[in-house]
Inverse folding.
C-alpha cells in the first residue's frame, strides 16, 4: 500500500515538474515573438552627417558640450538584433528590445543598448561612454527617428535626435 502511494506521489510530482517546464518553454517563445521588431523597422537605415553633442562633466553639476558631425547607420534584422555604426565605432549583435513603457506616451518603441563604446571620432572628448539608441514610432516608412542617449547611471543625456533614411529593406 505504501509503495503504491509513493508511486502515485512521484508520478504526480513528475507531471507537475513537466507542466512547469512546458509552461516556461511556451513563455520563452512568447517573449521571443514580442521582441521581434515590427516589419517596417527592418532594414538598413543611414544618415551621412548627423549632429550630436557629447557631454563632459567638468565639476559638480557643471558640463561642457561638444558638437560633432558623424555618419550613423543601423541595420535591424528580423531576429531582433542590430548592427550599428556611430562614427568610427561599430557594434554587432545588439539586442533590439521593445520599450517596456507605453510607446505613445514615451515616444520610444524600441531600445538598442550599445553599452560602453570608445571615442566616436577624433574630436570626441570622451575616450569611452555608455550609449543607447531610443527608436521612435515610424511615421514615414522611409525615415526612422532615433534619439541617441549618453547614459550616466540613471541620467540619460540626449546627445541628439537623428533622422535616418531607409537604404535597404530586409
Amino acid at each position: 500500500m505504501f509503495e503504491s502511494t509513493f508511486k502515485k506521489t512521484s508520478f504526480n510530482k513528475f507531471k507537475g515538474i513537466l507542466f512547469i517546464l512546458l509552461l516556461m518553454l511556451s513563455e520563452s517563445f512568447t517573449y521571443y515573438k514580442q521582441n521581434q521588431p515590427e516589419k517596417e523597422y527592418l532594414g538598413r537605415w543611414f544618415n551621412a552627417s548627423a549632429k550630436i553633442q557629447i557631454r563632459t562633466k567638468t565639476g559638480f553639476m557643471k558640463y561642457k558640450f561638444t558638437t560633432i558631425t558623424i555618419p550613423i547607420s543601423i541595420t535591424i534584422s528580423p531576429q531582433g538584433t542590430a548592427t550599428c555604426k556611430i562614427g568610427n565605432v561599430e557594434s554587432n549583435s545588439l539586442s533590439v528590445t521593445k520599450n517596456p513603457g507605453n510607446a505613445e506616451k514615451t515616444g520610444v518603441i524600441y531600445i538598442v543598448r550599445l553599452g560602453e563604446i570608445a571615442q566616436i571620432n577624433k574630436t570626441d572628448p570622451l575616450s569611452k561612454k555608455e550609449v543607447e539608441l531610443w527608436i521612435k514610432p515610424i511615421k514615414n516608412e522611409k525615415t526612422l527617428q532615433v534619439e541617441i542617449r549618453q547614459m550616466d547611471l540613471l541620467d540619460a543625456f540626449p546627445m541628439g535626435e537623428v533622422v535616418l533614411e531607409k537604404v535597404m529593406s530586409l
User: Anything to note?
Assistant: Residues 25-33 have pLDDT under 50 and may be disordered.
